[in-house]
Write a structure and sequence with these properties.
Elements: E1 7-11, E2 16-21, H1 24-30, H2 34-43, E3 48-54, E4 59-64, E5 78-81, E6 87-89, H3 90-93, E7 95-100, E8 109-110, E9 113-114, E10 117-121, H4 128-142, H5 159-187, H6 190-197, H7 199-214, H8 220-229, H9 235-249, H10 254-280, H11 288-294, H12 298-319, H13 336-364, H14 368-387
Antiparallel strand pairs: 1-10, 2-7, 3-4, 5-6, 8-9
Helix pairs in contact: 5-6, 5-8, 6-9, 7-12, 8-12, 9-10, 9-12, 10-12
Length: 426
């Protein structure tokens, strides 16, 4: 047994069986037949239920263990009891052996050599990554004591998918953190960009805490939900931070800017986050087995959105309550060149908003029916491209796999030594 691993299984071998061979002379000697011997073996080889003990917290099922798993354990089974009290045991009349099923034609090859696969599973409370680490240490240590003709190798490590998805989550989170920080620094303020960017790790940490309280774990489905929500959890903080910055730029005092800026966008921000949460709520109510798998995904999404909403409306304004006036106080400079570049980018954005975008809005608002017609035309054009086959769509695209699997049916009587495969890859 290996500490930390509770469930294993063997594959690629024939089924294990216990052989009981009884000579005819032994049966005649004691006046027995095969039916009596079979009844004796069956009676002493069963696990029998003994009822249930019910408590307030759980039900305990009792079982009498009688099943035997080695030939040696069957030697003392009585098959005949005489009036004088003497017994005839199975070991006295039969030859018992541990063997394998001859009718099952199963064999396994690995790199052209005979092999046995040890399948390792995890329970609900175990960690896949810890199990992999335990197996790696065991293989590394065990190889030193094994004979030269026996090899031990790890194969088909499904835990790597968990590692890959966790790497994607961490990479995307760090990329989003850097992009949000740099973008807000270019257009607004470095202090504001820092505290807004902190909304990403804070929201994810809060989501993990809520998942822990709800009994959820970090798995493939929950990490998919966290990757999906990465682009949403910082939106409300950006809106609130920009509003506070704008109020400060208009001349409000630092505390007044934090209060007034948050109050201006509180309702739209709450509406935006709540509508997204409502869109994921039906996933909690999918029934049956599929529902148990699916509802793991919306939990981190909803939890992260709730935490980001609280962080954006209550925590972020506190950090920005002493935001300096952009018109009077010098910003924190990393270098003069970078500060000059930031000012140029901010000036270009202001020029685009105040001139080009403002002119477009001035023309679009009086001609609302024309704008609506153009939008409907664009939607119909996109739908036509899709229905005409010019725009392809595949709901479940084929994904590349690391292994080639083939199922081959052979006629009865085919010797296994004549079976050979040749795989040609482009």
């Amino acid at each position: 047994q290996i500490k930390g691993i509770s469930q294993t299984g063997l594959s690629g071998i024939r089924n294990y069986e216990i052989s009981i061979e009884i000579p005819e002379a032994a049966l005649r000697k004691y006046g027995l037949d095969f039916e009596k011997v079979k009844q004796a073996v069956r009676a002493y080889g069963l696990n029998v239920s003994a009822g249930t003990i019910r408590t307030e917290k759980e039900d305990l099922r009792l079982k009498i263990l009688g099943r035997k798993y080695r030939a040696l354990e069957y030697r003392n089974i009585p098959v005949l009891t005489r009036p004088d009290g003497t017994r005839v045991t199975l070991g006295q009349i039969a030859e018992l052996r541990d063997t394998f099923d001859d009718d099952t034609q199963i064999f396994s090859l690995f790199n052209g050599e005979s092999a046995v696969a040890v399948n390792i599973f995890k329970t609900e409370n175990e960690d896949s990554l810890k199990i992999v680490a335990i197996i790696d240490d065991f293989i590394k240590t065990k190889r030193l004591d094994m004979p030269e003709n026996i090899h031990l190798t790890k194969f088909l490590d499904n835990a790597r998918m968990v590692t890959d998805r966790l790497r994607i989550l961490i990479t995307n989170g760090l990329m989003g953190l850097c992009l949000v920080f740099l973008t807000l620094w270019l257009f607004l303020d470095i202090r504001l960009s820092f505290w807004v960017s902190m909304g990403i790790p804070v929201s994810l940490a809060g989501a993990l805490a809520i998942m822990s309280v709800c009994g959820a774990s970090i798995n493939m489905i929950s990490m998919f939900g966290m990757i999906m929500v990465l682009g949403l959890i910082v939106d409300d903080a950006i809106v609130v931070g920009e509003s506070i910055y704008n109020r400060r730029n208009m001349g409000d005092a630092p505390m007044d800017a934090a209060i007034n800026g948050t109050a201006e966008v509180a309702m739209p921000v709450m509406a935006a986050v709540l509508t997204t949460i409502i869109a994921f709520l039906p996933l909690f109510f999918i029934p049956d087995i599929m529902g148990k798998f699916i509802r793991v995904m919306p939990l981190p999404v909803v939890a992260a959105l709730v935490v980001s909403l609280v962080e954006g409306l209550f925590v972020l304004p506190i950090h920005l309550r002493d935001l300096p006036d952009p018109n009077r106080h010098p910003k924190l400079r990393i270098s003069r060149k970078m500060e000059g570049f930031r000012k140029k980018v901010a000036a270009l954005l202001d020029n685009f908003i105040n001139l080009k975008y403002a002119k477009f809005i001035d023309k679009a608002l009086p001609n609302r029916y024309l704008v609506l017609s153009i939008a409907v035309l664009a939607a119909l054009l996109i739908a036509g491209l899709f229905q005409g086959g010019f725009m392809k769509f595949n709901l479940l695209p084929d994904a590349d796999d690391d292994f080639i699997k083939a199922t081959v049916e052979l006629p009865p009587g085919t010797p296994r030594l004549s079976i050979s495969f040749q795989v040609c890859l482009p």
